[in-house]
Amino acid sequence: MVDVSTSIDLSGIRAAHSRIRPYIHRTPVLTSARLNEASGGSLFFKCENFQKIGAFKARGATNAVFVLDDATAQRGVATHSSGNHGAAVARAAKLRGIPAHIVMPSNSAKVKVRSVESYGADIAFCEPTEQAREVKCAEVIKKTGATLIHSFENEHVIAGQGTVVMELLEDVPDLDVIMCPVGGGGLLSGTAIAAKSMRRSIKVIAVEPANADDAAESFRAGRRMVTEKKFTIADGLRTNIGEPNFAIVQRFVDDIVTVSEEAIVSSMRTVWETMKIVIEPSAAVPYAAIMENKVGSRGKRVGIILTGGNVDLDALPWNCSSDR
Question: Is pLDDT above 90 for 306?
Fold first, then answer.
């Protein structure tokens, strides 16, 4: 595997941005006087919930698909994903006119399954474990000859995700802190490289659910740790951080904090009610850290990446039983 911790830089992120610009939205940066007052700082929300397929994943997947040479691309692409990355790969493949094969856990959110289906991808379901996903995806690749587009252990995916922060810092250059969620670490890796390259003094802080805290534990221990996940409503953050991604985290990330399930739901609802925009639970995790005072925002200018807005409207968390 390519050592992505040393192969990605700002020039690669800028090249990715040029490559994907025709196929993505330059998403807006929104603010809220009410949330600023509550936090004591100035919060700038980069709204990737308005991105194509409803999530930042469109950036990395599009870059990884369009960087392939023609002969490789014609054999198709494959990935395993709980939803957003799968939809992003499916869309990018459709744009390029090549086959897409998406392996999805059997417990994937219905809205995300429908999204993948809408782009004409071939879906194969598997048991909801990382091992089952990887085994099934390997079978699909062996059968089809497709190229794996991994959701985070891929240098072109990471470079594409880094374009989120490149845009944010172009629009709001004087940020003190940038916050984003962490699951596998693709977005965090691209965020950290772009942020530290464009503004050396900026603090990069990642946030993850306390019930899926492998990245935080790894950060504290100084070595990558794989932990058993408990239930978290933030379905996009249930993956253990990737090995090459953790190497980037060790070089560029200032801190990783965790938040409770209750704070995630409260944060999600607060953003819906206050900003009048739809975000999914994973996107609510960074603001939850401010609500729980895990990150000091008073007097600071804080950029927050709202990663996506794909929500199952039949299962909103404030309408569901909380006795899981």
Answer: yes
Query: At 216, which amino acid appears?
Result: A
pTM beyond 0.90: yes
Parallel, antiparallel or unpaired: strands 29-30 and 42-47: antiparallel
84 compared with 82, residue with greater pLDDT: 84
**Per-residue pLDDT at 315:** 82
Instruction: Name 79's bridge partners.
Output: 102
Backbone angles phi, psi at 215, to 5 degrees: -65, -45
Contact, 165 vs 16, CB < 8 A? no
Contact 271, 222 (CB under 8 A): no
What b/e sequence results for 173-199 when a residue is b if at least 16 CB atoms lie within 10 Å of its CB, and e otherwise? eebbbbbbbbbbbbbbbbbbbbbbbbb
Q: Contacts from 227-232 at CB under 8 Å and sequence distance 24+?
A: 231/261, 231/324, 232/261, 232/264, 232/281
